[in-house]
Every structure is written in C-alpha cells, then in structure tokens.
Amino acid sequence: MTVQIKTLDMEPKRQTFGHVARRLGADKPATRYQEATLDVQATANFHYKPLWEPEYWTYDPRKTAVVMADWYKPLDPRQFYYATYNISRANMNQAAERAFAFAEERGLLEKISADARTQIEFGLLPLRHLHWGANMNMTEITQRGYGTAVTAPCIFSAGDHLGMAQIVSRIGLALDGQTGVSLDMAKEVWMNDPAWQGVRRLIEDTLVERDFFQLFVAQTLAVNGVVFDLIYKMADAGWKDAQIAVAMLTEFMTDWRADEAKWSDHVIKTVAAESAGNKALVSQWAADWIARAVEAAKPLSAALLGDNGALAEAAGDAVKTRAKNLGLTL
Amino acid sequence: MSQLASLTLYHNDEARPIIEAIIADNPGVRVLNMPGAVKLDCEGALVVKRASVEERLGRDWDPQEIHLVLISMAGHLDEDDDQFSVSWKH
Asked: Which one, of A203, A324, A312, lies nearest residue A265 by Cα?
C-alpha cells in the first residue's frame, strides 16, 4: 500500500479584521501593530456626556486646536504595540541592570570625589521629579488625545518616564548607601533651589495645559529636547570624575531619547504637514515652549556647569534646528 | 538557458515585511504561496534590500536576520550590510 502525502493550501476566509482591511484598501495580512492600532478607539455612540466638560464627548478631536482629517495618519514608525514595546524596553532594562551591577561590583560610585557627588545630587537626582511630571503629561495626552495611533505610544512613553525616574532614584540610592537621604535632599533642591525653579515652573505649567497636542509639542520638543537633552547628553563635564559612571548608568535615557524622538518627531511632522493652519499653530507652540524651556534651563546649566547658560542655549538651538527639519517655521 | 533565483521564506509576521520588500524591489518576481511558506522566484537574480525592509519593519534590520525566516534558496549568495541577494550571475 502506498501512502500519498498531499498538502492542501487553505485560504483563510479573511486575512484581517474588516475595519483594518478597509484602512489597508484590500483584504491582505495586517501586522499586529496595524491590528492593535487602527480604529481601535471608540468614535461614536458614547453613553454619557462627561459632566465635567459637557462641551466635549468622551473622545473628541476638538480637544486640540489642530485639525486632522484622520488622526490615524501620524502612525508610530517604530510600530509599537504592547508586545513589541515591552520586548524593546525589557532589552534596554536588562542593559541598565547590567550597568548597575557592574557599577556596584567595581564600586564606581564609591570612588568618585565629593565634588562629583555634590554635582550629581544637585544636577541629576532632581530629574526624577521632572520625569514624574513628564509621566503625568504623557498620561494626560493618552486620556485627552484622539486616536489610538497617537494615544497608545503616549502611554508607553509615560511608562518610560516612570522607569527613568526609577533609574535616577537608584543612582541616588547607590550614592547614599540605600538610605534615601540623597533623594530627600534632591526633593529639597527641586522645591527650593533657585537654579531648578525655572524647570519646575515649566513642567508645572505644562501639567495644566488643556490642549492635548500643544501639550505633546511642549513635552516632546521643549521638555525632552531642551531640559533632558541638556542634562543627559550635554552636561558630561558637570559630573567631574563621575562622567563615565553617570554615562553608563544613564545609557537607558540616551537609547530612549533616540527611540522616542523617532516617533514624536514623526507625529509632529505629520500633523504640521496636514494644513497651513496646523503648521502655523504647531510652529507657534514649538517656538513658545522651546523659548520657555531655554529660559528655564539657563540657571540650571549655569549652576551645574558654570557656563552662564550657554549650554541651555545650545540645547535650544539644536531643538530649533530639529523643529525646522520637521517643517515648522520658527 | 535561463535559471530561476529563488528564496523560500516562512509566511509569518517576521517574514511578511521582507516578502513585501522583495516583491516591491524585484519586478517580475513570481510568488508561490504554500501552507506556511512563500516561494519567491525571479529570472536571474533576487535581491533583498536592507532599506526597503527597514522602511516596512520600523526598526533597524540586519540582512543576516533573514536567516531566521529563510527555508531554502537557489542561486549564488552575495550578502553585505545593505543587501542580501541570490543570482546566477558570476
């Protein structure tokens, strides 16, 4: 008896969900990112009008002044959905864990001078509060924003900020022998040191910004681009002989910034390119918030690096160039 | 005599951007769907370009990663940092 093995190619009745197929223009296999993102947010038939804001519906594109015909146009070039995001961050976190283990094993933070320690306590540790503010902002955009394409990556970004606040805190704990004293001091600095009050005011003003896309521009261009880049990218000289230790332990932030900018720049570029009205609005917001962030960061850069605010200016110029490349007019 | 350069890849989420890139970059490619696999045949040569795959994948992609989804191939292999190709040219 002979047995014949035959393969049968069964065509699935449909390749993807109907709403995704309509977006793709044909019934073809969709990526998980597309299936987890496109038209996921509810758009109609809300049951209750929010009593605290009766002029809007629960999800409402009018919660920003910019107008998009389709809020699913600014897609995430990294194609992050739950799984891809977590895989990517787990890898970055593993690298961070190794860096901390290495720093502890070699006593990198014990060997630094008192001068460097003071600088880190003054210039780096208070950033955990700024990260918390940034986390609030990204969460707010998720809550008030429109379209899963924009809001889903925002909650990922909010998670990133919490993670980075934890990394900053761990640096503090490594410095003070796990007592938390340095973190209490950092809170004092954040609340009372004149050099930090501009930055604190900047982030507190963004916390009450109601226009979700203006908040997006303020957070991703101004706060990330000026303040975080100033401290994480440009302030190496400020850490004295702890430069290498700080660079190693904040590598997560460098990787995150490159990754986040890929997405946030693309969103801003797409929204600004939609219409002349959008371009004017976004350009205006970017110009305002970048200028404010530079003013806020100047005393900080002066106190940390003794440069009279030159590096804050440089960070601002870099962001302005970046914004111009995104099609904004500053 | 003409010869077909060919790549056979898994048909899954990881391979789909690569398949799309191959179809876009190689005019005249013939696509043969099999259960769980896709065979791509092209007269003479078949090229996978890093830039095209990255564009569809949304992240950095090393042409070496194609081996994770590659089942079979026909043709002389030429690979570098920017492309992965099979051809019968010398």
From this structure: A324
